[in-house]
Design a protein that fits this description.
alpha/beta; Rossmann fold; 7-stranded parallel sheet; 7 strands; globular; binds 2-hydroxyethylsulfonic acid
Length: about 260
């Protein structure tokens, strides 16, 4: 119970890596602040988190793309939830897989607004309190895609490259404070990621993971848990992980 009673804010907590992270922290007895847009799904994660051992759960209906709503949500947290110890900037998505010169601007904007601007808004709202309290840890969800661009994914990869740069810049700006900053950078993870990317096309989504063993959301949650439970003087800057069937963004092994 290394995180017993710690207040952990997880964005995008209603599914995938966010939900798995919520359950992993719950098992450590953390107090969970779960934020997402889909209130119904979030309520299910909240009740599972309580079953898994969360000390308490507080859910926030939040779209990280809305700067004012983000600031308001943090400003208006009940007093007993205000002192956030760990922020997991998980909310993010991919939309579309096509050549840059035929891509949809709406898809680009959704990714940029969520993966970059949303991450910035939440960070900007939460980190000042961490600095004042002299404790905190920010975990940003990056990707192998942020390290190496793949064809048809330029904008998604660019958002993850931006997340990595923001992660590293924030760590520089927090130098001299005890606040830690970590980027967790998974490769292919089987969640709703591809379903969202392909606007709900299940056939296309299933093809992405055909013939390979991808990471699971729980694998990534486990890495997050590891990063935040190092001794206080240890800052894991970046942690890159893939399944055994993936070497990097471009090199993937599929069984016939
Ligand atoms: C997820 C990694 O390669 O599926 O960010 O886009 S990939």
């Amino acid at each position: 119970m290394r995180l017993k009673g710690k207040i952990v804010l997880i964005t995008g907590a209603s599914a995938g890596i966010g939900a798995a992270t919520a359950l992993a922290f719950a098992a450590e007895g953390a107090r969970l602040l779960l934020a997402a847009r889909r209130a119904g799904k979030l309520a299910q994660v909240a009740s599972r988190a309580l079953e898994h051992g969360a000390a308490a759960v507080h859910s926030i209906d939040l779209d990280v793309r809305n700067r004012h709503a983000v600031q308001r949500a943090i400003d208006e947290l009940p007093e007993e939830w205000a002192e956030i110890d760990i922020l997991v900037n998980n909310a993010g998505l991919s939309r579309g897989l096509e050549k840059l010169y035929t891509g949809r601007a709406e898809d680009w904007e959704e990714m940029i607004d969520t993966n970059i601007k949303g991450l910035l808004y939440v960070t900007r709202a939460v980190v000042p309190g961490m600095v004042v309290r002299r404790r905190g840890h920010v975990v940003n969800l990056g990707s192998t895609a942020g390290e190496m661009v793949y064809p048809n994914g330029a904008v998604y990869c660019a958002t993850k490259a931006a997340a990595r740069t923001i992660n590293d810049g924030l760590r520089e700006d927090l130098l001299g404070t005890p606040v830690r900053v970590t980027s967790i950078e998974p490769g292919m993870v089987e969640t709703d990621f591809s379903l969202v990317r392909f606007h709900g096309d299940t056939k296309k989504a299933a093809k992405v993971y055909k013939g390979l063993t991808p990471l699971t959301a729980e694998d990534v949650a486990d890495a997050i848990l590891w990063a935040v439970t190092r001794p206080e003087h240890v800052n894991v800057a970046r942690l890159s992980l893939t399944s055994i069937h993936q070497a990097n963004s471009l090199l993937i092994h599929r069984e016939q």
